[in-house]
Amino acid sequence: MFKWVSFAFCLLPLLSAAQTSKFQNIGRTATPQEIKAWDIDVRPDFRGLPMGQGSVKQGEVVWEAQCASCHGSFGESAEVFTPIAGGVTADDMKTGRVKSLLPGSNQPQRTTLMKLPTLSTLWDYINRAMPWNAPKSLSTDEVYAAVAYTLHLNNILPAEFILSDRNIREVQSRLPNRGGMTTVHNLWPGNELGGIAKPDVQGSNCMTDCGQQVQVVSSLPDYARNAHGNLADQSRSIGPSRGAETVLKDVKTTQNSQNTPSNTPVAQSIQARAAPESIATVSLSSIQPVLDKNACMACHGMATRLVGPSFKDIAARYKTTDGAINLLSGKIKNGGQGAWGAIPMPAQALSATESAQIAQWLMSGMPP
Amino acid sequence: MNLPAHSKGLGQPVAARPYGLPSEFEKNLQRRESPGLTRVGAASVSFSPLQSLFGIITPSGLHFERHHQGWWDIDPSKHRLMINGSESSLLKRPMVFDMDDIMRLPSVSRMCFIECGANTAMEWNNTAVPTVQYTHGMLSCSEFTGVPLITLLEMCGADVKRGKFVLAEGADGSGMTRTIPMSLVQSGEVLVAYGQNGEMLRPENGYPLRLVVPGIQGVSWVKYLRRIEVGDMPYGAKDETLHYVDLLPDGTHRQYSGIQEVKSVITSPSGGQVVLQKGFHSITGMAWSGRGKVKKVDVSIDGGRNWKTSRLQDPVLSKCLTRFSADFVWDGQPIILQSRAIDETGHIQPTVQALRAVRGGRSIYHNNAIQSWLLGENGEVKNVQVG
Fold first, then answer.
1. DSSP string covering B346-367
2. Who among A204, A217, A302 is closest to B387 (CB)?
3. Measuring CA to CA, which residue among B35, B66, B85, B75 is closest to residue B174?
4. For position A7, what pLDDT does the model report?
């Protein structure tokens, strides 16, 4: 029989909540096996760290196979992500503070090892999210090895070191930036971490004759006008304003563009190029599952060269080639070398239909 | 009289487009990437076109995106949420919920903004990008529907006194993890959400389940939420240790910096637009604060020398976008437009110089500076910084 849950019932003390929740028959108890499989996090006190070990030498093998294509052989690469290694010294390891984080340092970019205060973070992250296109595929010992090799890149660990659950706490005490974090601020919503009572920066409530004479101290240079594409195409074409025409380099034209219609000849010709009528249009949303399944994006960026050329560059190069769809479809399936540099593309285990669809998507102008 | 075709013919039938789409003439409004900001699309950002949006709600298809390892469309019938303790004494009964379970529970809906901690990050030292889409577009606002996390924790018998921290973990490849304070969960604000603007979450925004943490930077709103753990210390996750940490001039990093502080921006007129006419204009934009309601927004047309208080459009909600507007007659002379928000705690939006004086120019995150737009004689609006 339908029955309202009584109000008094919900006021029962939390103590017995699990047994007496008014939300009867919702959810179920997690089994110990499920918890073991899902609860993979490793905390800064290393709670959750599984037993295991890995050497720097083993780590080098893992690194070359799984990590180097993005991060570089020495963790130095800024090609895809921010660099892993660099910017730390033996002195930093002693003090627990990284000197190159100070203003005026000539370190070009902050690296992972310059920032890392807790070794658990590195272990946990590699374990849960690396490698990039196949996360959670490393064995526990491979994760130890990859962590060991990462630390070796900046001589935090020597070449013969074997990192394990038994010595990881000692290794934690070598981290260059272990003393470099602070929670003395007002940006954490609670008092669990100390912090300060008031915001560190407060604005002014002055209403009239405030401050000094106003001067423009920074603006975008004219050559950067088109760096984000034609702004005329990025704003609504009715209303109190229009997007500025930034494709036309002539500033005078822009100044007179008060009646700029959105369909300029330039915009029309871009559209015309994007979708030649002879090719069936395949959209990114329909091709994305194929790209994902085959990890195409691990090597090809939309507009940026990664290991291989960007999709945009490929589409541009073959735009006017006769039979481009068949040609590209074959190249995708069989791999190749030389057309875009020395790094070979391996043959791919996808169907002829899928490779043809990718080629069609490229040649139909890569519509979203 | 020359009547247009739509006045003289038969229009399209119902359900010609079973899921409606914007007009063909609105194609300029799209989420866009900032060229050169990132190298791979699966670990990137797309910005919401704030310059052309009205009111406070972001259309779900224009909600900004931030993915750390690509997005997925997850089968909701197979999705599970586990809640456990870092040790058994912190949580009496670890539980597993499927979507049926979560959607059977009493739901709450609330409107709130979500802003990436790195919104406006490119502008710490100089102007870097041309339009409000790129300066402020990692900002969106939706009505979210879900179950308060505290309800689920109570069902599991969590020790909310000793378990001062909660870990939220995503089911995608990045396995995104973030630490949330239990005090915020206890307030009831933190939601395990499945709804967004009346429909389910979009896949790009975490379908079928995400955490909603009002007032806190977007990275804490873990998408594809698969696990909640109650613990007695913060977790030092990658994105609260190596990223989303704020470098200070003394070489230390602020860790666990979550709140998005009081901020506002004028969206019309704004950078990259050309104002068509002299005469009357309505200056309008959005204000928000991660600490509560917006109390007041002041607007200046002389680069911050003199200010006038703007009108706030109802509703004015806590940790939600608030639309403001101010009337203005443009005489064709160059002017510098600014807005300055004040929240109910009395916190006032600062200048970028005031921020730099305390935090330096390298902290990346939490730039809530006053934005300046220069409206030139030719009607073109440019992103500038004033001093």
1. --BPPPHHHHHHHH-S---S--
2. A217
3. B66
4. 43
CA angle A13, A19, A21 (to 5 degrees): 65
- Could you please state the CATH topology (level 3) that the domain comprising A53-172 is classified under: Cytochrome Bc1 Complex; Chain D, domain 2 (1.10.760)
Q: Which of residues 30-89 of A touch B (CB under 8 A)?
A: 30, 34-35, 38-41, 43-45, 47-48, 79-81
Interface test with A, best of B256, B352, B373 (most A CBs within 10 A): B256
* Closest by Cα among A75, A55, A53, A54 to A64: A75
DSSP β-bridge partners for residue A91: none
- Comparing CB atoms, the residue among B127, B151, B362 nearest residue A219 is B127
Partners of residue B43 in chain A, C-beta under 8 Å: 81
Note the ipTM here.
Answer: 0.96
With CB atoms and an 8 Å threshold, state whether B164 touches A203.
Answer: no
Same domain (yes/no): B91, B224: yes
What's the pLDDT tens digit per position in B148-173? Answer: 999 999 999 999 999 999 999 999 99
CA distance B141 to A185: 26
Q: Where does the pLDDT of residue A20 fall: very low under 50, low under 70, confident under 90, or very high at 90 and above?
A: low
Q: How far is B270 from chain A (nearest CA, A)?
A: 9
Asked if A274 reaches chain B (Cβ–Cβ under 8 Å), the answer is: no
Whether residue B104 lies inside any domain: the answer is yes
Picking from B333, B326, B340, B324, the residue whose alpha carbon sits closest to that of residue B386 is: B340
Say which CATH topology domain A279-336+346-363 has.
Answer: Cytochrome Bc1 Complex; Chain D, domain 2 (1.10.760)
CA-based nearest residue in chain B for residue A21:
B155
Q: Give contacts of A 104-143 with B, CB under 8 A.
A: 110, 112, 115-118, 120-121, 124-125, 128-129, 132, 135-136
Pairing of strands B372-375, B381-386: antiparallel
Domain that holds residue B338: 263-384
- Give the pLDDT score at A3: 52
Based on the fold, state whether residues B307 and B380 are members of the same structural domain: yes
As a whole number, mean pLDDT of residues A174-186 equals 98
Closest CA to A340 of A357, A363, A317: A317
Indicate the burial class of B370 (C-beta count within 10 angstroms; 0-12, 13-18, 19 or more).
Answer: buried
pTM score > 0.95 for this model? no
A210 → closest Cβ in B87, B131, B304: B304
Q: Is A366 helix (H, G, I), strand (E, B) or coil?
A: coil
Q: Which tens digits make up the pLDDT trace of A266-279?
A: 333 223 333 333 46
Q: What is the pLDDT of residue A249?
A: 47
Give residue B255's identity as a one-letter amino acid code: Q
Cα–Cα–Cα angle for B246, B252, B258, rounded to 5 degrees? 30
B123-146: pLDDT as tens digits: 999 999 999 999 999 999 999 999
Q: How far apart are CA B359 and CA B356, in angstroms?
A: 5
The rounded distance, in Å, linking the Cα atoms of A57 and A140 is 16
Q: Is A313 on the interface with B (CB under 8 A)?
A: no
